[in-house]
Design a protein that fits this description.
The chain has ten helices and 13 strands. The protein is α+β, with helices and mostly antiparallel strands. The chain has a six-stranded antiparallel β-sheet, with helices on one face. α1 crosses α3. The chain is globular.
Length: 297
């Protein structure tokens, strides 16, 4: 059996509920809850290709702004469709806590910041959507180039919600680019004891919580001694919940890794890059070895 696990299928228990709200209606109901909590808020809804891309942006006159992608909240609603108000109430409470934490400059607020991998394509679409909503001067994301078509952004992940950290919010907390990345990586190290390495014989999959699996590549130096590979470590980072590794001198594993990366990047709702990456000199680089091996063969 291949060490690469298949993607987790959609939940099958949703069908028992007769007519749950679709994502469009859910988003509007969520926006209404925000407006009820903050009558002065500017609220905008954006829909992408699927639930993973749908988001709500809102901002207040005091400068507070938040971006919430709806995928996780919508799934929580589908799990209990008779209680949508509970989902909205939890998100509003979390946003209020975040707003107060920013105002106090609290260490607790900083502890919620975590790094997330995205792609340049995602960033371009997000920019287009933001501009179409008239938010040219209120960028909701911090985006840094990482390697190849991957970029790095940051979220605030509380027990009840996850939202993207904006440049304005980072500035209000006194976090420049270096301090922000250091804080996010420090927070991510809390997950290291939960990281599971599956596989063997030079082929591995890193498993975490289906949210920050891909992000753990940023901490590779902390767990590289748990795997045995031939050559440099090569990664497939095809989805946020898929991080797979083999060695650069293992041609068979490289070919399998590329094939699975292509499949996952095309089918996953949380897809990232179909490309392979090599960890070299302490950072990620795009890996071109598969093409070179094909040409030589």
């Amino acid at each position: 059996m291949s060490f690469f696990s298949k993607l987790f299928g959609g939940r099958q228990d949703v069908a028992q509920h007769a007519e749950p709200m679709d994502l469009v209606v859910f988003a509007e109901r969520y926006a209404q809850a925000i407006r009820a909590a903050w009558p002065e808020a500017e609220v905008a809804i954006s829909h992408g290709a699927g639930a993973a891309d749908a988001r709500i942006d809102w901002r207040l006159p005091d400068g507070f702004q938040a971006t919430h992608f709806l995928g996780n909240s919508y799934q929580r609603y589908l799990d209990a469709p008779d209680r949508p108000e509970a989902v909205f109430a939890e998100q509003i409470a979390s946003a209020r806590e975040l707003q107060l934490g920013i105002g106090r400059g609290s260490d607790a607020a900083r502890a919620t910041i975590l790094p997330v991998l995205k792609t340049r394509g995602w960033h371009e679409i997000a920019l287009q959507q933001t501009r179409s909503m008239g938010m040219r001067n209120a960028m909701p994301f911090i985006v840094e180039p990482l390697a190849g078509d991957l970029v790095l952004t940051y979220v605030e992940d509380s027990p009840d919600s996850m939202s993207y950290l904006s440049p304005a919010e980072a500035e209000r907390r006194g976090l420049d680019a270096q301090a922000l990345r250091s804080q996010a990586l420090e927070n991510l190290t809390r997950f290291l004891p939960e990281l599971e390495l599956q596989g063997g014989g030079g082929r591995y999959a890193a498993r975490l919580d289906r949210n920050y699996d891909a992000s753990m590549v940023l901490l590779f130096e902390h767990w590289r001694d748990r795997i045995e590979i031939r050559g440099e470590p090569v990664f497939a980072i095809a989805a946020r919940d898929e991080l797979m590794i083999c060695g650069s001198e293992d041609a068979d594993s490289l070919a399998s890794l590329q094939g699975v990366a292509d499949e996952i990047a095309q089918s996953s709702a949380y897809n990232l890059s179909p490309r392979l990456y090599v960890h070299r000199d302490g950072r990620l680089h795009e890996f071109a070895g598969v093409e070179a091996l094909s040409d030589s063969g």
